[in-house]
Backbone:
């Protein structure tokens, strides 16, 4: 299961009537997923994450290139591996006035899955005691966990989660982190798409960063973090200018931080005592001293050459022209590049919205 999800020179270009086409994904060569691990698929909004995931799930056809899942072409034969893949793409859709348990029972029945599995996945996502409450009574975090339960009904080998923590409060994000690690601990490969670098840093083993549809870097979390540069020291002092001049004169380059009284010292954290000694010898006394470790965010900024995470691309990951983005449970009836419907060997992530539900919003990401 080393090459669970593989992309070879993947290109997805959206044509726009009367305007230049939009390149959502450009020449992407990538291997994602290891059993028992979490792979973070990162990039700012509009970077091509959701387009890539849709290609991987057979929901849209690549313009050129190929995507394979467990060795099967995702465009022509995804049905052969559909039972091994669970996914949540965008916002979970459930029948709002059904209970959580009833929603899952409906999904299980459509897929021919034993209803006892519903109780098992409710336990996994810690919703067993709330299973008889209606979907509308759930918090956003509970709704996300119920959607994950739906994706787990098939007991898949690969789980793809698109922005699972989007919109959650800090408590909900923490719960999601714990849940993802617990599922990975069962031996499943998990791919988590997100633009929240700090959260991914706390849950992932491997990381891929894309920007403007182009691969920036891929590797283990530790490998990618090395692109942030060496660790450094952050110090706080009243006379910052004097401290910077003193340390720089002693071979320890120092630079001011935006925060008043704080400055960087470009030396490893092991030399903290030396920094303190040099300053004290010159009558300068620190009020704060800490190590700043290499971060995924800093690595991202260094690799993309940005002073801050880049803004979303305009329409770079939008639905093809001519209609709203389809719900994640079924391919769209719309654009000519849409893939054939996935056979019912795998249950959709969520049941179709009730007839009275408003139309799905446009896809705004990735």
Residues:
């Amino acid at each position: 299961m080393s090459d669970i999800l593989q992309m070879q020179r993947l290109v997805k270009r959206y044509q726009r009537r009367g305007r230049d086409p939009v390149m959502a994904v450009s020449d992407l060569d990538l291997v994602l997923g290891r059993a028992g691990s979490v792979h973070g698929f990162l990039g700012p909004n509009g970077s091509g994450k959701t387009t890539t995931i849709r290609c991987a799930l057979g929901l849209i056809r690549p313009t050129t290139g190929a995507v394979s899942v467990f060795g099967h072409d995702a465009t022509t034969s995804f049905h052969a591996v559909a039972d091994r893949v669970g996914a949540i793409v965008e916002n979970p859709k459930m029948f709002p006035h059904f209970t959580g348990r009833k929603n899952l029972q409906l999904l299980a029945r459509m897929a021919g899955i034993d209803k006892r599995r519903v109780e098992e996945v409710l336990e996994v996502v810690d919703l067993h005691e709330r299973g008889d409450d209606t979907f509308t009574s759930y918090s956003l975090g509970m709704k996300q966990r119920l959607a994950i339960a739906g994706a787990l009904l098939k007991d898949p080998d690969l789980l793809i989660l698109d922005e699972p923590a989007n919109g959650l409060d800090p408590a909900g994000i923490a719960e999601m982190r714990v849940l993802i690690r617990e599922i990975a601990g069962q031996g499943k490969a998990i791919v988590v798409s997100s633009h929240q670098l700090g959260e991914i840093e706390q849950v992932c083993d491997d990381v891929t960063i894309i920007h403007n549809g182009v691969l920036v870097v891929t590797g283990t979390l530790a490998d990618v973090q090395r692109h942030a540069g060496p660790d450094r020291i952050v110090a706080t002092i009243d006379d910052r200018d004097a401290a910077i001049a003193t340390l720089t004169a002693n071979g320890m380059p120092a630079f001011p931080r935006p925060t008043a009284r704080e400055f960087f010292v470009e030396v490893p954290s092991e030399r903290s005592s030396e920094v303190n000694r040099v300053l004290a010898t010159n009558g300068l006394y620190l009020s704060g001293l800490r190590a700043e470790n290499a971060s995924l965010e800093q690595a991202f900024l260094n690799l993309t050459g940005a002073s801050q995470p880049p803004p979303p691309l305009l329409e770079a990951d939008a639905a093809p022209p001519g209609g709203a983005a389809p719900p994640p449970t079924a391919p769209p009836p719309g654009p000519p590049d849409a893939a054939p419907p996935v056979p019912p060997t795998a249950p959709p992530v969520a049941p179709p919205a009730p007839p009275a539900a408003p139309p799905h919003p446009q896809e705004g990401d990735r």
